[in-house]
Amino acid sequence: MQQPRQIQEFVSKIIEIKNETPTVKSFKVELPENADIKFFPGQFFMVSFVNDPEIKTARAYSIASSPLENGYLEIALNKIAAFTAKMFQLKEGDFLKLKGPYGKFYFSDEIKNNLVLIAGGTGITPLMSILRYCAGKGLSNKIQLFYSVKVPEEIIFHNEIKKAKEKNPNFEYFITITRAEEHHEWKGKRGRIDLELLKGQIEKPEEKLYFLCGSKEFVDNVISMLQNLGVKREQVKTDVWG
Ligand SMILES: Cc1cc2nc3c(=O)[nH]c(=O)nc-3n(C[C@H](O)[C@H](O)[C@H](O)COP(=O)(O)OP(=O)(O)OC[C@H]3O[C@@H](n4cnc5c(N)ncnc54)[C@H](O)[C@@H]3O)c2cc1C
């Protein structure tokens, strides 16, 4: 059994800030030289500002990058209240304090089940780490990703996920847009992730391991659909944010 990683606290320079969507930014932070920071894909770090006179609290952010990437961690977030508003003002070269890793919502190599990853909105971040890790290691677990966002321009990491799908026959990607009425050009699936979609796509649901991440309402909803498919609660790992 692989052991949870050791918790460490460190100050880290922001090396890249990217507008992933009109409302989501990603931040790559450099890991301190010679630091041996390890985490499992799916885990999170507590992030805070360095010597900030106004905001002394920390917020949890799941790592979107793979643990196989040396030298940096990536997080992605949308602007909600004071903390995230301040995050959006940061520039490359600024510093953040990180402490972690934390959390039991993670994938590790001993898991041999095929995986079903289900995300709502920014809930894609920990699942992206799992996806990147499994692809990077060439693991044989089949992966299905179901991802729901409000509007097409808010799909985070869309191009990378689409490319992963083209390259890897073991990976399936289902994206659905919940507010598609204003987006007539959208040719993909519309509406929420529903029982019909899950039932139609997940073969042998009782053999899979499920990772669900998003708002409480989203996660609760998906759990009850999975129960409808005969999935046991022990097969479902959840990460709930709001
Ligand atoms: C384990 C864990 C991992 C997390 N990982 C991420 C991540 O990778 N990316 C990310 O954007 N956030 C993530 N969050 C949420 C994050 O910690 C903050 O709560 C969020 O960024 C809002 O911070 P804030 O101070 O601006 O607003 P807050 O004052 O903390 O929150 C204001 C309200 O927004 C709700 N809320 C929190 N997050 C969201 C969200 N993403 N979308 C809509 N409503 C939300 C809260 O429940 C609260 O009611 C994670 C939370 C947890 C517990």
How would you portray this structure in words?
By secondary structure, this protein is of the alpha/beta class. The protein has 2 domains: 8-102, Translation factors (Elongation Factor Tu (Ef-tu), domain 3, Beta Barrel), CATH 2.40.30.10; 115-240, Rossmann fold (3-Layer(aba) Sandwich). 21% of the residues lie in helices and 32% in strands. The chain is built from 5 helices and 12 strands. Strands 4-3-6-1-2-5 form a 6-stranded antiparallel sheet, covered by helices on one side. A 6-stranded parallel sheet has the order 10-9-8-7-11-12, with helices on both faces. It is globular, with a radius of gyration of 18 Å. The two termini are 31 Å apart. The mean pLDDT is 94. Flavin-adenine dinucleotide binds at residues 44, 59-62, 75-78, 80-84, 103, 121-122, 125, 239, 241-242. Flavin-adenine dinucleotide binds next to strand 4, strand 5 and helix 1.
Summarize this structure as a short list of keywords or feature phrases.
single chain, 242 residues, alpha/beta, Elongation Factor Tu (Ef-tu), domain 3, Rossmann fold, six-stranded antiparallel β-sheet, six-stranded parallel β-sheet, 5 helices, 12 strands, 21% helix, binds flavin-adenine dinucleotide
Question: What's the SSE blueprint?
Answer:
Elements: E1 8-19, E2 24-30, E3 44-49, E4 59-62, E5 72-78, H1 82-89, E6 95-102, E7 115-120, H2 124-137, E8 143-149, H3 158-167, E9 171-177, E10 189-190, H4 195-201, E11 209-214, H5 216-228, E12 236-240
Parallel strand pairs: 7-8, 7-11, 8-9, 9-10, 11-12
Antiparallel strand pairs: 1-2, 1-6, 2-5, 3-4, 3-6
The structure holds flavin-adenine dinucleotide (FAD).
